[in-house]
Structure formats: structure tokens, C-alpha cells
Design brief:
With about 300 residues, the chain is an alpha/beta fold. The protein is about 25% helix and about 15% strand. The protein is built from 6 helices and 8 strands, in the order ααβαββαβββββαα. Strands 2-1-4-8-7 form a 5-stranded mixed sheet, covered by helices on one side. Helix 3 packs across helix 5. The radius of gyration is 18 Å and the shape is globular. The termini are far apart.
């Protein structure tokens, strides 16, 4: 009953703050970040401590300014293919959300990589070389590339092309984000930063499939109980931000997801909210694993 009141209040909140924009870009590639068993186990191990963690949205004691190193890999024509202004605009969007937990990102430096071979990111030696050459230990390292294919990553579908990828905070040397240049505008970077700070996608199933009833919300999906059960919204949301899918759970119940959550695979222009418990997780994992980035 308490959770239903919270969810009802959240729905009203979403209606109040989400003004769906009309820009035309449609998500044609999915989010590339999937849960791993290692990270799911970390969430489970930290779950009690996280939920006992004292956190009051909008009352964090200070602003942490986190430097971002922007690496733009030139394409085969020697062109950047994206502007620094695009990334500045995306960071402004991200900062409008992250200010609620006292975090602000800023571009500290810009580096142009003049080898187009590094602009096609896969899980191979080229990616390792790219990070060895250009990753800074105390920054968020954002690489703007021409394509990202996770085909050889052990937890991904073979041949899967995505708009972005990053690592969860528990992994060593995980301060890296890859973003397709075509997705440099909008909230795609905000979604990647959400993963970077510890959030699973709302449709993640590595830890288990969340039921429509959400009775298993603390043991499945994104392991957060104030987000709606999500059957995966990729290509299931139309231009008016209406869910068009008809997925059912194992009990035969139809999913009724929100299209507004930033960690969903809804259309980018429809996404406009983190929930309070998503904010708490990001703040908790920032303090536990990412404070080394503070400027």
C-alpha cells in the first residue's frame, strides 16, 4: 500500500515535470549496458546498507565537480564528425538531473584522436590500445566514435550495435564512456552517466525478470522498487510517447510501463525523470566507488 502511494505520487510528479520535446531524433540503436553477475552480486551485497543510507533528495551537503576528458576520434575522412558544443549541451542536460545529488560534470580538456581505426569500437585489442593511450585515471573519459559493436562481449548478443556503453563502478579502471557521435545530443549521455554511477537499465533481466505486480522488485529487474516494471521499450514507444507494446509477464499480466524513465530504452525525447531511489543508488555508489573523480 505504501509503495502504491509512492508510485502514484511519482506518476503525478512525472506528469508535472515531463514536457516531452518534439525533436525528431528516434532511437534506432539500443542502450548497450547490461547487468553482469558480478555487479548484480554487488547490488545484493550492498542492498541493506544502501537502503539504510541516509539520503534526502536535494539536501546533499556540497557540489562535487567531476572533470570529463572529451576524446573525439576523427573519422576516415579526418573529420571530427561532432562538435564540442553538442557535448556541452548534453552535459548541461545531465547536470540538470545530477545537481539533485550534488554532482556536476564539466569538460576539463578536449583531445582529438587522429586514427580512424579507433573510431570503430569493439571488444578487441583496438579498444585496449585506445584506452591505454588516452584514458586519464582521475577523469570521466568520454570517447566519441563512429560505431560501437559489442559482438564479442560475453554478456551481449553477438553482433549487437549500440549507441553507447560504459562500465559499472565496481570494476577497476572503469571511468570510461563510449558514445556514438550521432547520439551526442539529447539524454543519451545522461543515461550512460546513470549507468556509470551505478544504475541498471529499468528493463535489465540479468538478475531476474521483474513481474508486473513488482512483488519481486528488490530481487529482479533494476533492483529498485520505485521504478515501473519494464518489459524493454526499445522500438515500443511511438512519436507521441505512447507505449505500443503488448508484453506479458510469466503470470500473463500485461506490462504498463512508464516511457519517461531515463534508464529505459524509450525514445530519447520522452525520457525525463530519475526516481528518488535511483538518485539514492547513484549517490550511494558515487560515494562508495567514484569519489576519486572529484575535482
Amino acid at each position: 500500500m505504501i509503495m502504491n502511494r509512492i508510485k502514484s505520487g511519482l506518476f503525478i510528479f512525472i506528469l508535472g515535470v515531463c514536457q516531452y520535446s518534439s525533436y525528431a531524433q528516434v532511437t534506432t540503436l539500443p542502450d548497450g549496458v547490461k547487468g553482469t553477475k558480478v555487479y548484480i552480486n554487488e547490488i545484493i551485497n550492498n542492498y541493506t546498507d544502501e537502503n539504510a543510507f541516509s539520503f534526502d533528495l536535494n539536501t546533499t551537503d556540497s557540489i562535487a565537480k567531476i572533470p570529463l576528458r572529451l576524446n573525439i576520434v576523427r573519422n576516415i575522412k579526418g573529420e571530427a564528425g561532432v562538435s564540442v558544443g553538442n557535448i556541452e549541451n548534453s552535459l548541461n542536460v545531465a547536470n540538470s538531473f545530477f545537481k539533485n545529488i550534488g554532482i556536476q560534470f564539466f569538460i576539463d580538456s578536449v583531445n582529438y584522436v587522429n586514427d580512424y581505426n579507433y573510431s570503430y569500437v569493439t571488444y578487441n585489442s583496438n579498444k585496449t590500445e585506445l584506452l591505454t593511450l588516452y584514458r586519464l585515471a582521475d577523469h570521466v573519459n568520454l570517447f566519441l566514435v563512429d560505431s560501437i559493436n559489442l559482438g564479442t562481449y560475453k554478456t551481449s548478443t553477438p553482433g549487437r550495435t549500440t549507441y553507447g556503453f560504459t562500465y559499472f563502478p565496481v570494476y577497476k579502471d572503469s571511468n570510461v564512456i563510449f558514445l556514438d557521435k550521432e547520439y551526442a545530443s539529447g539524454k543519451y549521455l545522461t543515461t550512460m552517466l546513470g549507468h556509470f554511477m551505478g544504475l541498471l537499465a529499468t528493463h535489465d533481466t540479468v538478475g531476474g525478470i521483474e513481474q508486473v505486480s513488482e512483488k519481486n522488485c528488490d530481487k529482479s529487474g533494476d533492483f529498485i522498487c520505485d521504478t515501473y516494471a519494464d518489459p524493454n521499450l526499445y522500438l515500443q514507444v511511438d512519436s507521441t510517447c505512447t507505449y505500443t507494446g503488448s508484453a506479458k509477464d510469466s503470470n500473463g499480466k500485461y506490462y504498463v510501463p512508464t516511457v519517461a524513465n531515463i534508464m529505459s530504452d524509450s525514445q530519447d525525447n520522452c525520457k525525463c525523470v530519475f526516481t528518488p531511489l535511483q538518485y539514492r543508488r547513484m549517490y550511494y555508489y558515487y560515494r562508495k566507488y567514484r569519489q576519486y573523480l572529484k575535482n
